[in-house]
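hey can u run this one w/ Muraymycin D2 bound, need the structure tokens asap thx
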Amino acid sequence: MLYYLSFLLASSYSGFNVFRYITFRAAMAALMALMISFLLGPWLIRVLTEKQIGQQIRDDGPASHATKAGTPTMGGALILLALLISTLMLADIANRYVLLALIATVGSGVVGFADDYLKLTRKNSKGLPPGAKLLGQLLVALVVAVALYNIPKFSTEIAFPFIKTLRVNLDIFYIPFAMLVIVGASNAVNLTDGLDGLAIGPVMVAAGTYAVVAYVTGHLKLAEYLQIPYVAGVGELTVFCAAVVAAGLGFLWYNAYPAQMFMGDVGSLSLGAALGVVAVMTKNEILLIIIGGVFVIEALSVIFQVASYKIRRKRVFLMAPIHHHYELKGWKEPQIIVRFWILSIIFAVIGLSTLKLR
Ligand code: 57M
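ok here u go:
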């Protein structure tokens, strides 16, 4: 909205022309999202505590988690609010990529909210039945994928990091593929969200990396120079990604070890979907495997653990997802968190380098 207002004001005050630059609006959106999540954090913690919206802890997990019982959850609502307000204020809301990113993020957040709400009202760790949760996620992803497929000139080709010449056109099958990326990312972030700050750190790093990817993908000259697919209008997602980073940073203030609040499924499902949808819209879907490497490792650890147990009746890890394995091996919680953050930064650098190494 400020973006449109600036057009009106620019005719009288030329200084408002600065709002035309994506980079300036991305910085402003980041500041706004940061302020909102910083300032509303203490209020939300107070409200959640008063209303006893606290975490139920499973008793089969690492013993150290027992002390976390009652920690206010659903802090993801704060991230969503900060992200939504700052994007609506500073991005071009008539841009269909921005709109679809918001629909994917908020839609998945609603599914997560329903799950959190049921866990809290039933006072146990069972929320939505897994089938219903997945159905909700798939429906949101379907709406977004079909809308993208119908955007004229939106390519259904997928590109592969490191192999410049390889492009595969999925045509109508791009719809289930895009859904897989969005729902897969959403669930992988959810699995990662099991230690203080463990999910939000890599989410911020990945969103920051995709802010760069979105900027170059939406910039004809830069895209040509880097020989990556050019997508007109997708540069506007830089503002959205910057808002994700900053809303996450504000939340991290309260989620840092020892956490004063958790994000809940409302946060993890929506943030994962946000990363997935940006990867799809910037035509760098496969790159998400590298940039979101920490989430991939977490999800794979669960897949291997479950498969191994079913086939061999033996576990690969002491407990999955893998962060629990390291807890049981005796690593301290902050050690695991910071080491996983370091990994996410390494993955982001490798991911960014593939833009040039093609
Ligand atoms: C979410 N949620 C946390 C919090 C957070 C298939 C199976 C592997 C699924 C997996 C699972 O349920 N994962 C989904 C994990 C929970 O956090 C809440 O959930 C929200 C995210 N959805 O925002 O509201 C707990 O995580 C801890 N936490 C923190 N700090 C944070 O900032 O410490 C979360 C955020 C919180 C808190 O303790 O209560 C969770 O782990 O439940 N299941 C598992 O992860 C379980 N693994 C398992 O059963 N492994 C098996 C098989 C199935 C692979 C095995 O290895 O044999 C473990 N989870 C728990 N206990 N809690 C095991 C036992």
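The chain has one domain: 2-59+67-155+175-284. anyway lmk if its weird
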